[in-house]
Amino acid sequence: xxxxxxxxxxxxxxxxxxxxxxxxxxxxxxxxxxxxxxxxxxxxxxxxxxxxxxxxxxxxxxxxxxxxxxxxxxxxxxxxxxxxxxxxxxxxxxxxxxxxxxxxxxxxxxxxxxxxxxxxxxxxxxxxxxxxxxxxxxxxxxxxxxxxxxxxxxxxxxxxxxxxxxxxxxxxxxxxxxxxxxxxxxxxxxxxxxxxxxxxxxxxxxxxxxxxxxxxxxxxxxxxxxxxxxxxxxxxxxxxxxxxxxxxxxxxxxxxxxxxxxxxxxxxxxxxxxxxxxxxxxxxxxxxxxxxxxxxxxxxxxxxxxxxxxxxxxxxxxxxxxxxxxxxxxxxxxxxxxxxxxxxxxxxxxxxxxxxxxxxxxxxxxxxxxxxxxxxxxxxxxxxxxxxxxxxxxxxxxxxxxxxxxxxxxxxxxxxxxxxxxxxxxxxxxxxxxxxxxxxxxxxxxxxxxxxxxx
Length: 455
Description:
The protein is mainly alpha-helical. The chain is 70% helix and 1% strand. It contains 21 helices and two strands. It has helices at 4-28, 34-50, 64-75, 80-85, 92-109, 118-126, 129-138, 142-157, 161-174, 182-195, 199-223, 226-235, 250-254, 273-302, 310-327, 337-350, 354-371, 386-404, 415-431, 433-440, 442-454, and strands spanning 267-268, 271-272. A two-stranded antiparallel sheet has the order 1-2. A hairpin with a 2-residue loop joins strand 1 and strand 2 (271-272). Helix 15 runs antiparallel to helix 16 (337-350) and helix 15 packs antiparallel against helix 18. The longest helix is centred in the middle third of the chain and has 30 residues, at 273-302. The protein is globular, with a radius of gyration of 25 Å. 38% of the residues are buried.
C-alpha cells in the first residue's frame, strides 16, 4: 500500500506532529473565549448525561456532526464536573484533526512534482498563526470544517469520487457554510464520473453518501430530536440580519462608519443590502467557477477527460469561501477560515508567498480585532482598522483572480506580462489617435478652451 519512501515520510510526519501537538497543548490549556467555552461544556453535560442524541434539547445551533467531536471529548470524562473542569482539553480535538489534514497538505505539495522538502514546507500551514489562534485562543472548531472540505478536495484531485462525496457530506453536516463548495466540487467530479461511469459506480456514488448521512442523523432520530435538527438548519438563514458581524469585508469599504447593529434589510435602488450581497457573491462566484465550467463543457463535448491543473483548482477553492465572506451580509469574522489552507498551498506550489501572507494576516487581524484576546492598547491603529483590512482582502481577491485567469502572477510581473500591457496600450493609443491629433492642433485646442469657458 505504501512504498518504503512513503513509510519513512509518514514516520517523520508523525514524529513532527506529535512534537508540535505536545507543544501546542501547552498553550491550549489557557481559557478560550468564555461565551463559546460555556456553550461547549453546557452541551457536553447534556451529552454526558443523556447521550449524543439529546444535545438538541439544549439551545445548540450547531449542526449534527460537530457534536460527534464534542462527544469524543465527553467520552474521556468520568463525571459531569469533569466535563466542565477540563473543557480546555476539548481544544485538542481540532488540533489533532489539523495535523491529520496536514499530512494531506504534504501529499498535495509534492503531487506531480519533484519536491525535496514537503514536510518542511507544510509548516507554513501547520504553524499558521491565525488558524491556531482560532482553535487555541478562541476555542472554536473551524479547523475541523476546513479540513473536511480540504480532504474532500484532495480526494477529488486524486480521483476518489465516493470518498470525496462522503467527506463533502460530512462538511455540510458540520457547518452549513459547506454548501458553497458543492458547485465547485460537482464541477470537478462530473468529468471524472463520466470517465468512470457504470451502473455499479453510480449506485455507489449515490447510496454510500446517503447511508453516511443517515448514520450521522441516527442518534438524533432515535432521541426524537430530528425536528430540532431541521429547525437549526432552516433557522440558519437570516438568523443575524446585520450588514456585518465584525467581518471586515466590502461593507466596511462602502460604509466607513458601519456598526454591528446596522440591519441588512435596508434598501438601495429597490434591493435590500442582503440581496445586493448575494448578487455580488453569485456574480463573482460565476467568474471563479467559469474555468471549471469551460473545462466541463469541453470534456462533455469532446468525450474526453479534461481537468484543470491543481494550481487552478486551489485558486477556485480559495476564492469561493473568500467571496462568500467578502460580499455577503450577516458574515462573522471567522467565515474566511476555509480559504486560508487553499491559498497557502497554492503559494507553496507556485512559490508565490505574497497572497498567502496577506490573506493570513488579514484573517489574524480580523480575529483579534473582533475578540481582543491579547488586550492590545490601541485597536484603532491602522493594522486593525476595518477599512484597511477590507482593502487588503480586496487586493487578495483581485490577485487570486489574476492568477486564475493567467493575466498576471499575483504581484510579480514578468516580461511576458509587460509585453501584454504594452500591446494593450499600443492598441488603445491607436484607437484614440484621432482625438490625440485633435488635441495637438493648437487652433482646435484654443477653440476648445474658449468653448469650455462659454459653457
